[in-house]
Amino acid sequence: MATIHLDAGQRVRPFSTLPHEPLLAAGRFVLTAFARPIVILRSYRRSDLRPDLIAGLTVAVVLLPQAIAYALIADLPPVVGLYTAIVAAIVGALWGSSAHLHTGPTNAASLLVLSTLAVLPYGHDSQAYVAAASLMALMVGLFRLAMGVFRLGVLVNFVSDSVVVGFTAGAGVLIMFNQVKHLLRLSVPSDPGLIDTVRNTLLQLPAAHAPSMLVGLGVIALLVMLRHFRPSWPGPLIGIILAGATVWLLQLDAKGVHVVGALPRDLPPFTLPPLFDLHLIGQISSGALAVAAIGLVEAMSIARAISGLTGQRINSNQEFVGQGLANIAAGLFSGYTCSGSFTRSAVNYRAGARTAMSSVFSGIFVLLAMFLFAPLAAYIPRTSLAAVLIVIAWGMIDRKQMVHIWRTSRAEGWIMVATLGATLLLPLEFAVLTGILVSLAYYVLQKSMPRVLDMAPTPDFRHFEERGERDPCPQLGVLSIVGDLYFGAAPNVEEALRRHMAAFPDQRYLLLRMHNVTHLDISGLHMLETIVRAYRERGGDVYIMKVRASIYEFMKTAGFVELLGEDHFLSEEKAISHLFYHVLDPVVCIYECPVRAFYECQNLPKMLTPVPVCRDMRLGASRVESLSPVDVWVALHQPQPPVVIDVREPREFHRGHIPGARLLSLSRLDAQQLNLDKETSIVLVCRTGRRSRIAAQVLSAAGYRNVRNMEGGMAAWEAAGLLEAIEEFV
Asked: DSSP of 565-620, one letter per residue?
């Protein structure tokens, strides 16, 4: 029985597993996921306490002004942002996977909340609006928690980074224009749409409030200078404190500068959102789904980016559980939708945080700040928060990354542009879903179009590489399939293989390299069967090398191995050698092919014949009669014996030939110089019959009407035990 050659390191695995194993694995994961705080606390070391406290305090300094400002993006009271910052930071850290990812209010999530809730018939200062924001956070949390519990974290991998970059840049633009009204104290209605916001802002520009504008522009100038000259300083906190001090000293609140007002000094209160308001749930469900999706992509991108620096292994499903529980807790404790923040996570890492407890400490520090400094918020001008948000929003437009994506991959670049355009022109929840759908469509398109590469050996003949401009072997094509062969990809692969057949009609043999095929379904198998039949109909065949064990087992079960033949599955080391010595036509190699494509060709004598040889000659589709060696022996002993012409090379001829035969090598064959009558009986001989068959075609085409070929050549003559003439030849 032939040996089946599988890809290196592969072994055949059983197709079935116990039916209860997935359920047991899911149950174990759920228990482990919800017991995450116990694992963190039990493994906590005293040596980690000081660096975690310092990192927590550093993050809290950034988190405090961001929580107030981001809540205002969503047109929510500042205290809602603070409640979210406290609860989300603690819960997200204790149930998440990353030691450095910081969960809380973010600018993108806040803008999505505004876009989703803008359609509701509530005033933005009403309790109903705040309750709807809490309900949305609860729905987002349930979506994310379900994805974590059912271990669907892998789905995030199908959303391209270009979607996140495009959406974030668009959100930055929207935030900047939405905050201009607060910077200038304009009476412009809240509208997440860019066109309406710009139009209404331009109409109200003459009514800009000069003191508010001066304070806001001063904060922007301060933040820009601090970012350039003192980037390690907490610029937003410093800007807000100085702006508040300016309002207090100059009593600008009495001159019309809007202030935040005093904040309550209490713990985040437990409130139950309107869980049974089905109409409200239906109105915000699409927005909640969009926030859940983009937030998870952001959170995992941040966690993986930082884990690349720390070496920590991130469990995406555990992180989904953490993000889900953080939103559920925020929704139940008077907060709103939250997500992972890149800015605060980076600050957490740079501040020396060692464990997730640093984020817990940041939430506790914000809570303490609420109790200590809540009355001072009465002097924080709204324009200073708008200035902080405008500077942050400008930083959201990652121009360097956008240029990099565009230069690296135009397809990814167009996905980014499409998401950016949708963010600016469509409702945000649809913009996010549009970007995700475009990303998924691109992925499906890529998976449905595996590459079929024309391969050739490397110069040292140790590996294969793309053939490029080198001449191919005229008999054997070596193609590599890069991608899976499933129902969506099979037609494209078949089309590529048929294009190759049309481009190289003389290549009767095909060697498929399939080590990059990890999945094969029945449609892909039918496609391979079609290609095998096509090559066999043209007198050739198909061989496969480096097939994976699981793919081979599927082929065997479906009957493809029996159709192709077990001996047609070759190892990488012996594939070319086997085909060269046992399959390819040496006549073509020696007399027709000027290419030395493979290692086996390097020492092969090339005796290119000037005689044009057509494909039908090589296939033997001839009208020339064949004689057996015994028939030739009998004919030679008749009164009028035929002329025997041996078309081998001189060295072969002198080692043994038919007595009385004339030597005329195929490489020197010239029908015009035979000097024989066209009616002369001629028998052509070579080693195995291939070269003599070609010579017979040539002579027949030249008008010789009594040409025959000795079937099997000298190998058959020797096997019949017939007499040979041997000459000494040097």
From this structure: -GGGEE-TTTHHHHHHHHTS-HHIIIII-----SGGGTT------SS---HHHHHT
Do residues 647 and 695 make contact, with C-beta atoms less than 8 angstroms apart?
yes
What are the tokens at 358? 């640093």
pLDDT at 217 over 90: yes
Collapse the DSSP code of 380 into the 3-class scheme (helix H, G, I; strand E, B; otherwise coil) and give the result.
coil
- For residue 623, the model assigns a pLDDT of 64
Cβ neighbours of 150 (radius 10 Å): 13
Q: For residue range 606-616, list pLDDT tens digits in order.
A: 666 555 444 44
Q: How far apart are CA 314 and CA 382, in angstroms?
A: 39
Q: Of 389, 349, 356, 300, nearest to 58 (Cα)?
A: 349
Residues 66-103: pLDDT tens digits? Answer: 898 899 888 899 899 999 999 999 999 999 999 999 99
Residue 353 to residue 375: CA distance in whole angstroms = 31
Burial of 267 (0-12, 13-18, 19+ CB in 10 A): middle
End-to-end alpha carbon distance in the chain: 44
3-state secondary structure 73-142: HCCCCHHHHHHHHHHHHHHHHHHCCCCCCEEECCHHHHHHHHHHHCCCCCCCCCHHHHHHHHHHHHHHHH
329-360: pLDDT as tens digits? 999 999 999 999 888 888 888 888 899 999 99
Task: Give the chain's mean pLDDT.
Answer: 84
338 assigned to active site: no
418 touches 163 (CB < 8 A): no
CB atoms within 10 A of CB 614: 12
Q: What pLDDT was estimated at residue 357?
A: 96
